[in-house]
Design goal:
The complex is a heterodimer of chains A (702) and B (500).
Chain A: H1 3-21, H2 27-30, E1 45-48, E2 54-59, E3 65-73, H3 86-96, H4 104-113, E4 117-122, E5 126-134, H5 138-150, H6 156-171, H7 177-190, H8 202-206, H9 210-220, E6 226-232, H10 236-247, E7 270-275, E8 282-289, H11 298-309, H12 315-323, E9 330-335, E10 343-350, H13 355-371, H14 376-389, H15 397-409, H16 416-425, H17 429-439, E11 446-451, E12 466-468, H18 485-502, H19 504-508, E13 512-521, E14 524-533, E15 537-544, E16 547-554, E17 557-562, E18 565-568, H20 571-595, E19 600-609, E20 612-620, E21 625-631, E22 637-646, E23 649-663, E24 666-676, E25 679-691
Parallel strand pairs in A: 2-6, 7-11, 7-12
Antiparallel strand pairs in A: 1-2, 3-5, 3-6, 4-5, 8-10, 8-11, 9-10, 13-14, 13-25, 14-15, 15-16, 16-17, 17-18, 19-20, 20-21, 21-22, 22-23, 23-24, 24-25
Helix pairs in contact in A: 3-6, 5-10, 11-14, 11-16, 11-17, 12-13
Chain B: H1 2-13, H2 26-30, E1 33-36, E2 42-47, E3 53-60, H3 74-81, H4 94-116, H5 123-141, H6 148-155, E4 162-165, E5 170-177, H7 181-191, H8 200-214, H9 218-230, H10 244-249, H11 252-262, E6 268-274, H12 278-289, E7 312-318, E8 323-330, H13 338-349, H14 355-363, E9 367-376, E10 382-390, H15 396-412, H16 417-435, H17 438-452, H18 457-467, H19 470-480, E11 486-493, H20 496-499
Parallel strand pairs in B: 2-6, 7-11
Antiparallel strand pairs in B: 1-2, 3-5, 3-6, 4-5, 8-10, 8-11, 9-10
Classes of the chains: A alpha+beta (702), B alpha+beta (500).
C-alpha cells in the first residue's frame, strides 16, 4: 500500500467517525460571536497623602454618590493572646462608640438624616472603615470618616452594649448547622487557638476592657498602615485636597508594630462527628491545606478545583446532586488567602439516611481526579468559563477599586488578576493532574459531619476512628490565673506540704509510676494496669480476658494498640486520657508540674471536704481546671474536682482518694472513687504499685 | 453578622428589595427601549456601556401563590426543571429519549397509584413496581448529556447561573459577555419553547433535600408554619418549596401542564441591561423569543384572604435561641398607599437611629437586632413584618412588648420632620444602590412591569415617597396595626428533653 492509500483510508475512517458522532446541527453551535467590545476600565489614580496613607481614586459620575473604604493592618491576627475577641469588639465599637467630637447617638441620627452610612468591621488581618453618602454631603462625611479613624471615643455604654451582643452571639452560635461545621472544621485545620479559627467564649468577653481598645487603636491605627479607596461622583483633584485636609495631619509615632502571622499546623487525617438532633440533614464539610494566591500553582489548582466542584458542570455537582439526587448543594472550593495558605473545602448536606452514601461519593471523586487526567472537554469548560468571565472583573467601579486596594494592602501587583488570567490560559491537563496529586491528599483530609448521628446509613467509623466533638457552649467562668502572685505562692506552699505528707525523698526521685488493679463500674469490673513515665508519657492497659488493649500517650501523640495493630485515638478520647494522667497516683503529675512551674496553680480559699477542713487550690491545665482539696491537717490530697464532657454533655467529676498506703517510701491511695454529678459511678481498687519500674519510653509509642 | 444573615434569609424567601425615590433618573428611564413582540412577549432593553457584559432575564408572572392545594411546590419544581435542557440540548438522541421518558412516566403512575391505593397494595407489588420504575429511569438516563444547558452557559462566561421562585414570580437570570446576546436569546427561547423535563424524579429528590436544608434551622421551620397561620385561604399560606407529600406525588406530566399554562409568551417578560445596542439587539431578541408560542394570559385569580377576626399566635419550642416575628396584613404592591408602608418600615427599621434599633437594641437592650420587612407577598395582599432577635437572657415576649410600644407611638404622635427628611434621603441612596448594577436594574424593571403593569413606575416611586406625609403615616398605622390583624410567631428555647 502506498502512503497515499493509507491516508485515504484514514481520511475515510475519520469522516465516518465524525458523521457517526455528529449531532443534528443546533442553532447554538452555529452562532458566530462578534468581537467583544474592549474592556475599558476607568482610570485609577494612586496617590500618597503627605503622611504616607496610600489612596486609590476612581471617578464615576453615573450616580451622585461617593464611597470610601479604608483598610488598616491589624485585625484578629494582631490580638494579644490573652485578649481573645478584642478585634471583634474593636470592629464594632470603633463605629458605635462615637468620636471625641460627636456623641455616638448624635452621629447615628445625623447620618440617617442625610442618607449616609459609616460602618466598621474587623477581619482576620485588617480593620475596615467604610462610608457612603450622597454627593452633596461629601465634605461632612469625609470629616466624620476621618474622625472615626483618628479620634474614636469608645463610649463606655456602647462597649457594654457590644459586649452584650457578643454574648448573645455566643449563645446563638450553635443554631445554624452550616456555621457549626465550618467553625469546627477550621478549628481542626488551623488549630483551635489560631486567630483564623478560635472562637470567643463568655469569659473572653468579660476580660475585654476599654483600655484594651484604646491600646489597640494607638498601636495599629497609623498612616503607614492605612490604605484607602475612594470612588464616585467627585473630581480627583478636589478629592485629594479634601483627604489631605482631614487625614493629612495624622502622624505615625514610634516604630511600626510587627504583626506575626500564626503558623499553620501539620494536617492530619481525622473523622469528626457532631450530634445535633434538631436538623433535617447531615451537614458534611471537609477540608485540607490549600494555597496562597501568589503560589505559582494557583492557576492550575483553581482550574482543578473548578472541574472537581466549581459549578453546574463540575464532577461533585453532577455526581452527588444530578446523578444521585442526594443533595441540593455539593461542591468544593479553594479559599486562597493573600498572606497565608488558605484551605480547600468540600461540602454537601443530605438526609441522615444517605450520609455515608454522599460522603463516599465525594471521597471517590476526590480520589478520581488524582488518578486519571481530566477530559479535554472538562478542561475546556473550566478554562473558557474563567476566561469568558474575566470581563466581569471590570463591570463595576467598586469591584475594580476594591480589588486594587486589596492588592496594594497585601503588597501584590495591582494587575495581579491579569497575571492569573494569563496563567489560566496556559493550564494543561498534565498541570491539573499534577496539582491534584500534590495538593489533594486524602490521607490528610479532615472530615466533619453534623447531624442525627444515630440515623446515619453507616457509622462514620467506616472512614476511620471517630472523634466526637462536643459543641456545648461553656458557661462557667474561666478561673483567672494571670494576676495573683500571692495566691500562686500560697498554692506552691500547700503543694510542698502535700509532697512532704506523701514522702518528699521518694517523690523527688520519682521517674515512673506503675499500678495494677481493677475498675468497678456499672455492669462489671475489669483488670487494668497503668504506667506513668514523667513528664509526658502515660499508658493504660485494659485486660479483656486474654486480650489486652493499650491506650498510650506520648506527648501529644495518642495511640491505641491491640496485639500488632495500632490506631490513632480520636481527640475527644485522647483528652480523657490526658485528664486521667494528671491525677494518676493521687495527683503525682499535678504536683510535679506545679512545683516545676509548668502549670499555674492558685490558692482559692478554705473549705471542707468530707466534713474536714480543707484548703482549695485551682490548677489550670490545657485539658481542664482542677480543683484540689488538700486536707488542712495532714496536707494530703483528698479529692480533685473538675468539669468534663460526657455523653450527655457537661459532667461534674469528683475523684476521691482513700486508703493511703506507703509503698517504697511514697504514700499513695489504694482506692479511688469517682462521683459524676454527685453519684458514685466508678471505683478503682489498686493492689500493686511499683515505683521506678524502669518502663521503657518505647512502651508508649510501640 | 447575624443581622445581615437574617435579612438575607428573608430575601431568599421572597424577593429583592426596592425602596424607590425621586431624583434625576430621567436619562435612564428615557433610554429604556420596550417592545411587545407579536406573540405578546414583553421586551425591555436598557443599554449601559460600563463594561462589555450584560444581564439577561426572563420573568414568568407565576409563583407559588398560583399553585393548587394538592400540588404545592410545582412552581419551584418547574424552575429546577428549566435547567434540564431541551429537545436538542442535554440529549444524545431525543427521539429515543422521548420513548424512554414516556416509559418512566407510565411506570411512575403505576407505582404512585399502587402506593396511594386503599386498601394498601402489597409490599411485593410495590417492590416490583419500584424496580420497574428504577429500570425505566436507567434506560432514559443513557440518552442524557448531564447538565449540558448549565455547562454551556457557564463555559460562555456566566459568573452566576441562577433562578429563583417566590410566592409571586419565577425569574431566570444570568449575565454573559455582551457579544453573546444571541446565544442567550437562542437558549432562553429554546428552553421556554421545547423544554424536556428529563431526570425529573431525581431532581425531585434534590428538591426534597433543599426543603430539608431549609428546615434545618429554627427560623426556616418557624416561617413555614407562620405563613400557614397568618393566611387561612390565600395560597401565601403554603411556603414556596411545597409540602413533602406533594413533592412526592407530583409527576412530570403535572410539571409539563404547569409549563403549558404559565410559560406562554403573553405571561413572560424579557429584560436586557448592559452593553448592547437596542437597534441591533431588538431584532435578535425578536427572532428567537418571537418563536415562543403566544398562548393566553392565564387568570391570576387566587382565593382572597378574608379579614382576620382575631390575633393568631404560634409558639414553636426548639433547642435554638429565641426569635420573634410579628406580622400585620397589608395590601398588595400596587396599592396607592404602598409608599406609605415603605416609609413606615424605614422609619421603624432602617438605619442605626431607627426607632426599633434605638428602643430595642440601644436603650432597652432586649434585642441584638430588630427590623421590618414589607415584601413578603407583593402581587396579592401580603404582610408587614417585624422581627427581632432577642439578646441572651431576654425573651421574644420582651421584644414583642417593646415593638408594640413603638407601634403605639406611631399611631398617636406625628413623625418628626428630621425623620421625614432622613427617610427621603435614605430612599434616594437605597434606590441608587438597587439599580447600580445590571442585574439589580434588570430585576427592578421586570418587577415593576409585572407588579404594577408598567416599568416606568420604578422611576415614579420618587414622587410617591416625596408625597408621603406624617398624616399618611398615622392613618395607615392606625389602619393596619390592630390586634386582630396580627399574627405572632415565636421560637421559644427549650432543651431537647423538655420538648418531649
Amino acid at each position: 500500500m502506498t502512503r497515499k492509500i493509507i491516508c485515504l483510508v484514514l481520511l475515510t475512517i475519520l469522516t465516518f467517525t465524525l458523521t457517526a458522532q455528529e449531532k443534528p446541527k443546533r442553532i447554538i453551535d452555529q452562532l458566530n460571536f462578534p468581537k467583544l467590545n474592549d474592556i475599558k476600565p476607568p482610570e485609577v489614580a494612586e496617590i500618597s497623602l503627605s503622611n504616607g496613607v496610600v489612596v486609590m481614586l476612581v471617578e464615576d459620575h453615573d450616580f451622585p454618590t461617593v464611597n470610601l473604604r479604608a483598610m488598616v493592618k491589624g485585625g484578629k491576627v494582631a490580638e494579644p493572646i490573652d485578649k481573645n475577641g478584642l478585634a471583634e469588639l474593636f470592629g464594632e465599637v470603633l463605629r458605635s462608640g462615637g468620636t471625641k467630637s460627636m456623641k455616638s447617638d448624635d452621629i447615628d441620627k445625623y447620618l440617617d438624616r442625610i442618607g449616609a452610612s459609616i460602618e466598621t468591621y474587623s477581619g482576620e488581618s485588617a480593620i475596615e472603615i467604610q462610608a457612603d453618602c450622597l454627593k452633596e454631603n461629601t465634605d461632612e462625611v469625609i470629616k466624620l470618616f476621618a474622625d472615626f479613624i483618628l479620634n474614636p471615643a469608645f463610649e463606655d455604654e456602647k462597649i457594654d452594649l457590644a459586649k452584650t451582643q457578643m454574648r448573645s452571639a455566643i449563645s446563638r452560635r450553635n443554631d445554624e448547622a452550616m456555621n457549626v461545621v465550618e467553625r469546627e472544621l477550621n478549628k481542626i485545620l488551623y488549630g483551635k487557638d489560631s486567630p483564623y479559627a478560635r472562637q470567643v467564649e463568655y469569659w473572653d468577653v468579660d476580660n475585654l476592657k476599654k483600655e484594651d481598645l484604646i491600646n489597640y487603636h494607638q498601636k495599629y491605627f497609623r498612616p503607614d498602615m492605612t490604605y484607602l479607596a475612594v470612588w464616585g461622583d467627585f473630581s480627583t483633584a478636589d478629592m485629594k485636597q479634601k483627604l489631605e485636609k482631614y487625614l493629612g495631619g495624622w502622624k505615625s509615632q514610634g516604630p511600626k508594630p510587627e504583626i506575626t502571622l500564626p503558623s499553620i499546623p501539620e494536617q492530619k487525617y481525622s473523622v469528626n462527628q457532631i450530634e445535633k438532633t434538631d436538623v433535617e440533614q447531615t451537614f458534611i464539610f471537609m477540608g485540607q491545606l490549600g494555597l496562597r494566591y501568589d503560589d505559582p500553582d494557583y492557576a492550575p489548582t483553581y482550574i482543578m478545583s473548578e472541574i472537581l466542584g466549581g459549578g453546574f458542570s463540575s464532577r461533585l455537582f453532577k455526581k452527588v446532586r444530578t446523578e444521585l439526587g442526594l443533595a441540593y448543594g455539593a461542591g468544593s472550593f479553594m479559599s486562597p488567602e493573600f498572606d497565608h495558605k488558605g484551605m480547600f473545602y468540600f461540602y454537601t448536606s443530605t438526609k441522615p439516611s444517605t450520609t455515608s452514601k454522599a460522603l463516599s461519593a465525594m471521597l471517590d471523586e476526590i480520589k478520581r481526579i488524582r488518578e486519571t487526567p481530566v477530559s479535554d472537554d472538562e478542561l475546556k469548560v473550566a478554562k473558557e468559563g474563567f476566561l469568558n468571565r474575566y470581563a466581569f472583573q471590570f463591570d463595576s467601579t467598586s469591584k475594580l477599586v476594591n480589588r486594587m486596594l486589596t492588592y496594594r494592602f497585601y503588597n501584590y501587583p495591582t494587575d495581579f488578576n491579569k497575571k492569573i488570567r494569563d496563567a489560566v490560559e496556559k493550564v494543561t491537563k498534565d498541570d491539573v493532574l499534577r496539582v491534584a496529586k500534590n495538593y489533594l491528599i486524602p490521607e490528610k483530609l479532615t472530615i466533619v459531619a453534623l447531624g442525627r448521628v444515630k440515623e446515619f446509613d453507616e457509622p462514620l467509623s467506616k472512614y476511620g476512628s471517630v472523634n466526637t466533638i462536643d459543641i456545648t457552649i461553656p458557661t462557667g467562668k474561666k478561673v483567672e490565673m494571670a494576676s495573683n502572685p500571692q495566691a500562686e505562692g500560697k498554692a506552691v506552699e500547700l503543694i510542698k506540704k502535700a509532697v512532704k505528707a506523701i514522702g518528699e525523698p521518694a517523690f523527688n526521685s520519682l521517674k515512673d509510676y506503675y499500678s495494677d488493679g481493677k475498675i468497678l463500674m456499672e455492669g462489671g469490673e475489669m483488670p487494668y494496669k497503668s504506667y506513668l513515665l514523667f513528664p509526658d508519657k502515660y499508658a493504660v492497659e485494659l485486660l479483656f480476658g486474654e486480650v489486652s488493649l493499650k491506650m498510650a500517650l506520648d506527648g501529644d501523640n495518642a495511640k491505641m494498640f491491640q496485639g500488632a495493630q495500632s490506631a490513632p485515638i480520636p481527640e475527644s478520647e485522647a483528652k480523657d486520657l490526658k485528664t486521667s494522667m494528671w491525677t494518676e497516683g493521687g495527683g503525682l503529675l499535678l504536683f510535679k508540674s506545679i512545683l516545676e512551674g509548668k502549670v499555674k496553680a492558685q490558692y482559692l480559699k478554705e473549705g471542707t471536704f468530707g466534713g474536714n477542713p480543707a484548703e482549695l487550690i485551682a490548677v489550670e491545665t490545657p485539658q481542664t481546671v482542677f480543683l484540689l482539696f488538700l486536707d488542712k491537717k495532714s496536707g494530703l490530697l483528698q479529692a480533685v474536682r473538675y468539669e468534663d464532657i460526657g455523653e450527655k454533655g457537661k459532667e461534674d467529676v469528683v475523684e476521691i482518694y482513700k486508703n493511703f498506703k506507703e509503698i517504697q517510701g511514697l504514700k499513695v491511695p489504694q482506692e479511688i472513687t469517682v462521683n459524676i454529678n454527685n453519684e458514685p459511678k466508678v471505683s478503682n481498687k489498686i493492689w500493686k504499685v511499683k515505683i521506678n519500674s524502669g518502663v521503657s519510653p518505647d512502651f508508649f509509642s510501640k | 453578622m447575624l443581622k445581615r444573615k437574617l435579612t438575607l434569609l428573608i430575601l431568599i424567601a421572597s424577593v429583592i428589595s426596592t425602596i424607590v425615590f425621586a431624583g434625576s433618573f430621567d436619562s435612564i428611564s428615557n433610554s429604556v427601549v420596550e417592545k411587545t413582540l407579536p406573540n405578546g412577549l414583553k421586551v425591555l432593553i436598557l443599554p449601559k456601556h460600563d463594561a462589555p457584559v450584560f444581564t439577561g432575564l426572563i420573568y414568568a408572572d407565576v409563583g407559588g401563590a398560583n399553585e393548587n392545594q394538592n400540588a404545592t411546590g410545582l412552581a419551584h419544581i418547574f424552575e429546577h426543571m428549566a435547567f434540564k435542557g431541551t429537545k436538542t440540548i442535554g440529549t444524545k438522541d431525543y427521539e429515543k429519549e422521548k420513548v424512554a421518558l414516556d416509559k418512566v412516566e407510565k411506570a411512575f403512575f403505576e407505582l404512585r397509584a399502587a402506593k396511594e391505593r386503599k386498601p394498601k397494595a402489597s409490599e411485593s407489588e410495590i417492590k416490583a413496581l419500584e424496580e420497574k420504575f428504577q429500570q425505566a429511569q436507567e434506560e432514559a438516563q443513557q440518552f442524557v448529556v448531564q447538565n449540558e444547558l448549565g455547562e454551556i452557559i457557564e463555559r460562555e462566561g456566566a459568573p452566576d447561573l441562577n433562578a429563583f421562585t417566590s410566592f409571586d414570580q419565577t425569574v431566570y437570570m444570568y449575565s454573559l459577555p455582551s457579544n453573546k446576546l444571541e446565544l442567550w436569546a437562542a437558549i432562553e427561547a429554546d428552553r421556554f419553547t421545547n423544554p424536556v423535563l428529563r431526570e425529573f424524579y431525581k431532581e425531585k429528590d434534590v428538591i426534597m433535600e433543599e426543603k430539608r436544608m431549609g428546615e434545618s434551622n429554627a427560623f426556616g421551620k418557624l416561617l413555614d408554619d407562620f405563613m400557614a397561620v397568618a393566611f387561612k385561604n390565600h395560597m401565601y399560606r403554603s411556603w414556596v418549596i411545597g409540602c413533602m407529600s406533594d413533592l412526592k406525588h407530583i409527576s412530570r406530566t403535572d410539571a409539563e401542564a404547569w409549563f403549558d399554562k404559565w410559560y406562554r409568551a403573553k405571561n413572560l417578560t424579557a429584560v436586557i441591561v448592559g452593553d448592547v445596542d437596542p437597534n441591533t439587539a431588538m431584532p435578535i431578541l425578536e427572532k428567537y423569543l418571537g418563536k415562543i408560542p403566544a398562548g393566553e394570559k392565564p387568570s391570576q385569580y387566587v382565593s382572597e384572604e378574608p379579614p382576620q377576626r382575631a390575633e393568631k399566635r404560634i409558639i414553636m419550642e426548639d433547642p435554638s435561641q429565641p426569635f420573634l416575628v410579628v406580622a400585620y396584613h397589608k395590601p398588595a404592591f400596587d396599592d396607592p398607599d404602598n409608599a406609605v408602608y415603605d416609609a413606615i418600615a424605614d422609619i421603624l427599621g432602617g438605619g442605626r437611629s431607627s426607632r426599633l434599633y434605638t428602643s430595642l437594641v440601644k436603650e432597652k437592650k432586649v434585642a441584638m437586632y430588630a427590623g421590618t420587612y414589607t415584601e413578603l407577598g407583593r402581587k396579592y395582599p401580603g404582610l408587614f413584618l417585624f422581627f427581632a432577635v432577642p439578646n441572651q437572657g431576654k425573651t421574644a415576649e420582651d421584644c414583642e412588648k417593646a415593638i408594640y410600644e413603638e407601634i403605639e407611638k406611631l399611631k398617636t404622635t406625628p413623625v418628626s420632620q428630621e425623620e421625614m427628611e432622613g427617610l427621603k434621603a435614605r430612599a434616594k441612596k437605597n434606590f441608587i444602590q438597587s439599580i447600580d448594577d445590571n442585574s439589580g436594574m434588570a430585576l427592578n424593571l421586570a418587577m415593576y412591569q409585572n407588579l404594577t403593569g408598567d416599568w416606568r413606575n420604578l422611576f415614579k416611586e420618587l414622587e410617591k415617597i416625596d408625597k408621603v406625609t406624617t398624616q399618611d403615616i398615622m392613618r395607615i398605622a392606625n389602619q393596619i396595626f390592630v390586634k386582630n390583624n396580627r399574627t405572632v410567631g415565636i421560637v421559644k428555647t427549650t432543651t431537647a428533653q423538655e420538648s418531649k
